[in-house]
Specification:
By secondary structure, the protein is of the alpha+beta class. 47% of the residues lie in helices and 19% in strands. Strand 1 and strand 2 form a beta hairpin. The protein is elongated.
């Protein structure tokens, strides 16, 4: 076999490969010998068919099989000899080949970059932390108590106001036609709960027991039922009853109702849950700071094909989001060309960080174990009550979707590994500062995100419903 490099430019490599006719002939002969061991032809005992007859019978049809075998073997040998790690499947193009002649073909391949991760012990990062104070704790307990408040019938003729509950019969129509799911009897609705279509509850403020009214609303553009999204609707409403909330007392009785020993235990539980929420948020913000620092300290070339794939995924998501808002790329704040350039920069950042974290994980033998995968699958399955088994089976039978589930777990492990080596200082901030969302443009730069695992779970649920 003769291999000559024809291009070495950045991460792109091209090779011309020639496999001599004698080697190709040997492969054909070996394959014919294998066939001959089982071949049965009139006039010959099994396994005794002469090579000349085997060649005349099977020779031409074996050329494609032998060609594929030769290309695979030669390509693997070429990549190993030159110590190349392909970023994508190599592109193969056969230049010439025929029976009794040399095989000549070309290999085009993008290789993974070779780089050295920075010394993570030189990183200086700030972790923002917030503590829940007594006032906020009381506010959270009060909010929890409001979820379990009880109601009593309002005085005769008393008008409903924000916070009251109305018991109603309603019937909805669009363009004069009743629609499925738009009617109910004896439905309890708390005014101000925002549990109905925007604008519905506000129009019930002031109604009294026995009133009949018409509520006019417009379904949101992103409404889950597509045939109703953006449509104007009318609801005929009969008010059966108006109820007012009873005063809520935060005491031991409330705690016992929630399955806890006393009010002190309830406050401890709320504090613990709040501290976990703040801890998770603090970690997420530290991760963002770390990724920014890693991006600033690494500037190696990345494979264009990986960037193209990442960009297409990002751009397709942008287009889908616009469609859900009944918009197109022309409705964006910036010209399409400028937006594409910005999203490509984000794609480059994501690919570079992904390669970096992958390299750190491999060098330090970090892995995702089965228990961690099972927990991730369980979290996805919990989102679809009654379909848990189907979700598990979906991931177990789809290696690609399973890999999407494992990726963020592995990413977090590598992030934690780097954080352990970095110099971390803590600064106490207010709850408002910790809860403050990053700019939208900055959020887009996150390494993970998108619809990976969530999208897979949605697909598994949809597949189940369609069966």
């Amino acid at each position: 076999m003769q291999v000559s490099e024809t291009l070495s430019e950045g991460l792109k490599r091209e090779y011309k490969v020639v496999v001599e006719a004698a080697d190709m002939e040997a492969k054909v002969t070996n394959r014919l010998t294998e066939i001959g061991k089982e071949a049965q032809m009139p006039g010959f005992r099994p396994g005794k068919v002469p090579m000349t007859i085997l060649r005349r019978t099977y020779g031409r049809q074996l050329l494609g099989e032998v060609l594929e075998q030769a290309v695979n073997e030669a390509t693997t040998e070429t990549l190993e000899k030159h110590e190349l790690k392909p970023a994508m499947q190599p592109k193969i193009e056969v230049v010439s080949f025929d029976e009794g002649k040399d095989l000549e073909y070309t290999i085009e391949v993008e290789v993974m970059p070779v780089f050295e991760p920075m010394d993570f012990s030189t990183l200086t990062l700030e972790r923002k932390v917030a503590e829940i104070g007594d006032a906020e704790l009381d506010e959270r307990v009060d909010s929890l108590a409001q979820q379990f408040k009880e109601f009593t019938e309002a005085d005769e003729g008393q008008a409903a106001k924000d916070g009251d509950t109305v018991v109603i019969d309603f019937e909805g129509s669009v363009d004069g036609e009743l629609f499925e799911g738009g009617a109910a009897e004896g439905h309890s609705l708390e005014i101000g709960s925002n549990s109905f279509i925007p604008g519905f509850e506000e129009q019930l403020a002031g109604v009294k027991k026995g009133d009949e009214t018409v509520v006019k609303v417009t379904f949101p553009e992103e409404y889950q039922a597509e045939h109703l999204a953006g449509k104007e609707a009318e609801f005929k409403v009969n008010v059966q009853e108006v109820k007012v909330p009873l005063p809520v007392t935060v005491d031991d009785a409330l705690a016992e109702k929630l399955g806890l020993e006393n009010l002190a235990a309830l406050k401890d539980a709320v504090r613990e849950q709040s501290e976990k929420e703040y801890s998770d948020l603090s970690r997420a913000k530290l991760k963002r700071v770390l990724l920014d620092a890693l991006a600033e300290n690494h500037d190696f070339e990345v494979p264009p094909s990986l960037v193209d794939g990442e960009f297409e995924q990002i751009w397709n998501q942008v287009v889908e989001d616009l469609k859900r808002q009944d918009k197109t790329v022309e409705d964006m704040d910036k010209p399409e060309e400028e937006s594409r350039a910005e999203f490509r920069d984000i794609a480059i950042r994501r690919v570079r960080l992904g390669l970096l974290l992958s390299e750190v994980g491999q060098r330090n033998n970090l892995t995702v174990n089965q228990d961690e995968v099972n927990r991730a699958m369980a979290e996805q399955a919990q989102r679809f009550p009654g379909q848990e088994q189907q979700i598990f089976e979906f991931y177990q039978s789809n290696p690609e979707m399973r890999a999407q589930l494992e990726a963020p777990i592995m990413e977090d492990k590598v992030v934690d590994f780097i954080v352990e080596m970095a110099q971390i200082s803590e600064s106490k901030v207010s709850i408002e500062e910790l809860l403050a969302e990053p700019d939208e443009d900055e959020a887009d730069k996150d390494l993970t995100g998108g619809a990976g695992a969530d999208g897979a779970a949605e697909k598994a649920s949809a597949d189940t419903e369609n069966k």
